[in-house]
């Protein structure tokens, strides 16, 4: 069961949705106070790299500064992969939401994948405490998403949440205020970006960067939802043979197999979760449908594919990108969690 923050500690609490791609922070009474990419920038020329900045500013530095700067991603596949960068990011967040510090040590509530191991949980706690926070409370992200979507999680009724993040895809069945079953694939939207990069390199000798790959993925999802396979997509990159920048256009049908392989993995874990769900909980899922959250849920075709392959209604939640943060907000506000 989830307990909300008592009012005395509420002022000293922050909610942190530390995602592989984006970090969203909520503060009591203020809503979202920080929403930036999960990226840190260090000076690379010192023996011990020195922290420069994080978030949007760090991302904007990528490839645009002459100084030897190193860009570090604190998380990989939904969990902490660089302790120093995570600590620096937490400190950056603390400074960014500065005024809260006058209330003393902040004890954050942080979202974590439902299948995170004990050592992954401990590493996150340590990074937060090294950054000057009090020991955080950790909550499963699908449960937070369900709270953020205002689902009645306390009911003895199965709810299925599919969180399509950048680094993880998680499927969870929730009932009686807890996660009854969860399945996760460590790999989300960023794995599709990488698959597109690999496809263009091997099939077209065309080098595309991560931001072009992400833009192509979003374009592809819009084209598939609109014109379908007949539509066209445009991608910018470097022609490997000449080393010159080019913009190429191609039919969406050509890159469709790369996209389909990614979606098949999501459908596969949803099917697995459905087949392992006890019948008593399946009833609720059949009646209410499957709720998709996370940035990947904005690709309408993912919900359509799940629905077509499972026969269960699937839909993207409204405000899919912020449902975990909204769940954290409800927890720290101490509003009753149903
Ligand atoms: N319209 C869209 N179509 C497809 N994918 C999208 C769209 N908009 C955003 N995304 C993808 O959503 C992902 C970011 O989602 P989100 O912020 O939920 O992830 P995260 O919380 O950082 O990751 P994780 O929960 O896995 O650690 C990125 O991979 C981004 O490219």
Automatic annotation (TrEMBL):
It comes from the Bacteria. The keyword Cytoplasm applies. ATP binds at residues 20-22, 166-168, 214-217, 295-298. Its main location: cytoplasm. InterPro entries: ATPase_NBD, MreB, MreB_MamK-like. One of its GO terms (molecular function) is ATP binding. Gene3D superfamilies: 3.30.420.40. Forms membrane-associated dynamic filaments that are essential for cell shape determination. Acts by regulating cell wall synthesis and cell elongation, and thus cell shape. A feedback loop between cell geometry and MreB localization may maintain elongated cell shape by targeting cell wall growth to regions of negative cell wall curvature. This is Cell shape-determining protein MreB.
């Amino acid at each position: 069961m989830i307990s909300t923050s008592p009012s005395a500690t509420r002022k000293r609490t922050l909610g942190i949705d530390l995602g592989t791609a984006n970090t969203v922070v909520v503060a009591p009474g203020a809503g979202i106070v920080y929403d930036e990419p999960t990226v840190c920038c260090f000076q690379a020329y010192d023996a011990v790299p020195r922290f420069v900045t994080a978030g949007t500013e760090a991302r904007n530095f990528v490839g645009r500064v002459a100084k030897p700067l190193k860009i570090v991603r604190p998380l990989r596949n939904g969990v902490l992969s660089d302790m120093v960068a995570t600590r620096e990011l937490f400190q950056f967040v603390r400074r960014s939401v500065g005024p809260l510090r006058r209330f003393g040590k902040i004890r954050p509530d942080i979202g974590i994948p439902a299948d995170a191991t004990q050592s992954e949980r401990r590493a996150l706690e340590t990074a937060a405490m090294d950054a000057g926070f009090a020991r955080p409370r950790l909550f499963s992200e699908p449960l937070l998403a369900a709270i953020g979507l205002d689902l009645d999680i306390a009911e003895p009724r199965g709810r299925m949440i599919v969180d399509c993040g950048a680094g993880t895809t998680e499927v969870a069945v929730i009932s009686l205020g807890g996660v009854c079953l969860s399945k996760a694939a460590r790999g989300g939207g960023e794995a599709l970006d990488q698959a597109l990069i690999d496809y263009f390199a091997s099939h077209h000798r065309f080098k595309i960067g991560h931001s072009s790959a992400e833009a192509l993925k979003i374009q592809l999802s819009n084209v598939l939802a609109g014109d379908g396979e007949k539509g066209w997509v445009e991608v910018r990159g470097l022609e490997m043979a000449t080393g010159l920048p080019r913009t190429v256009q191609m039919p969406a049908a050509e890159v469709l197999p790369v996209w389909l392989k990614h979606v098949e993995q999501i459908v596969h874990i949803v099917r697995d979760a459905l087949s392992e769900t006890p019948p008593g909980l399946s009833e609720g899922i059949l009646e209410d449908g499957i709720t998709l959250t996370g940035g990947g849920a904005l690709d309408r075709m993912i919900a359509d594919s799940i629905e077509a392959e499972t026969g269960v209604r699937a839909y993207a939640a409204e405000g899919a990108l912020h449902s975990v943060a909204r769940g954290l907000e409800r927890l720290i506000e101490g509003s009753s969690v149903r």
